[in-house]
Amino acid sequence: MSQYDLIVVGSGPGGYVAAERAGSLGKKVLLIEKDNLGGVCTNWGCIPTKSLLNTAKHFHYATESTSLGVHVQQASYSIEEAMAWKEKTVKTLRSGIEFLMKSNKVETAFGEASFVDAHHVSVNGETHECDHLIVATGSSPFVPPIPGSKLAHVLTSNEILQVSEVPSSLVIIGGGVIGVEFASYFSMIGTKVTVIEMMDEILPMMDGEFAKLMRREMKGVDFHLGCKVGEITEKEVRYTDAKGNAKAIEASLVLMSVGRRPNIAGMENLKLDIDRRGILVNDRMQTNISTIYAIGDVNGRSLLAHSASRMAEVAISNIYGTTKQKMRYNAVPWAVYGSPEAAGCGLTESEVAKQGREVACATVQMRSNGRFLAEQGKRAGGLVKVVSDAKTGCILGIHLLGPYSSEMIWGASALIESELRVQEVKEIIFPHPSVSELIKDACFAIDHSI
Q1: What is the pLDDT of residues 51-69, one digit of tens each?
Q2: What is the DSSP string of 338-360?
């Protein structure tokens, strides 16, 4: 029986970061992975989807660039070559994670982990002992029991990454981040895309004004809101619209994108407290068993890759650090990498109002910005909104819709995390021309004083 300071189960952006951090401290670490290094993010989520989205954006630019003086004759899109590019990217990043583990002397074992108890984990017939255990087993696509959901042309976000030809039509069930990103991708490469969403609006975490504009900007996608899918057949998706009328849409492919569920099977021996969202943890990522920590999607607190990585850092700091860090969720940014991009951090205007606080906010058009106008012209719309506390001026939320949103939102996270006031942001020098200047413009729109 091998003895380890730490065993980490799952090698996604939570698991491999936890293993790397512990290894860099000189701890003896075993990382167990049942599939490929990198977990869902590297193999089935963040990286492959962004690779494909980028190929579609290049194709879209080629076909829409005449107004900029760029003329491309007979541009075409090869999904086979795009998929090959995606696979090359994924394999490169997998190799990078493998090198990271070796350079930090982290041992890896590939196979299905079996949890014996809080200090023993078996894999490939061998049992290993540890002082501490980190569970980072992630989540899987949830498929509701809709009649016809098991038909061959009904795919999850995993299977749709392997399609070999551009579908003529695609119905996406669910208007969350995954559904909207795939809607962007397939609509840009020529597929007729329909999104059916049960809620009154797509992207529930997004400011309502922004969500409406995003739907309007996604001109190649037909959205049906407030609708409930009742059945999927070989040729169509049948649903009830917001007024209770029976409807049907033809589809050569159907993407099931209604959420994810934590991978918690086989953990009975650990005697962990678990609810419908996942493993219960405190703000230090510790479970009810003091030597077991749960990070990433499996605890259901924040299903984002960067949240998982931060949870890993928090867990390692509490196991081995002198300062015991806590996980804070008020400044976790999110991003949607479609066309257009969108991102946000902190509270929306309506969320602040629901708390009974007086809101001071301002929204500015991206078209008023020099760089946006120079690169996008009037072809596209975009918005930047800053939400603040009217009494203190403290920034509570920043929301972006338009190019570079995903690259700018980290700055919003820093402003909110630092509890900066609108007046203080007004004193920051932003580069010109840059779209990020709009954040400062919104702050001046809230407070005109000098």
Answers
A1: 999 999 999 999 988 888 9
A2: SSS-EEEEE--HHHHHHTTPPEE
- What does the DSSP assignment read for 176-190? SHHHHHHHHHHHHTT
Residue in 109, 125, 141 with CA at minimum distance from that of residue 29? 109
Condensed to tens digits (0 to 9), the pLDDT of residues 118-137 reads: 999 999 999 999 999 999 99
DSSP conformation letters of 10-57:
--STTHHHHHHHHHHTT--EEEEESS-TTHHHHHTSHHHHHHHHHHHH
pLDDT tens figures, 213-246 = 999 999 999 999 999 999 999 999 999 999 999 9
**Tokens 């795919």, residue located:** 155
Main-chain dihedrals φ then ψ at residue 227, nearest 5 degrees: -115, 150
Q: How many angstroms from the chain centroid is the CA of residue 379?
A: 27
Reading the block at residue 403, the tokens are 């190019």
pTM of the complete model:
0.95
Rounded distance between C-alpha atoms, residue 111 and residue 104, angstroms = 21
> Number of C-alpha atoms within 13 angstroms, CB side, residue 36?
15
Q: Give the DSSP letter string of 278-346.
A: EE---TTSB-SSTTEEE-GGGG-S---HHHHHHHHHHHHHHHH-SS------TT--EEE-SSS-EEEEE
Tell me which amino acid residue 380 is: A
Report, as residue numbers or ranges, the catalytic residues.
432
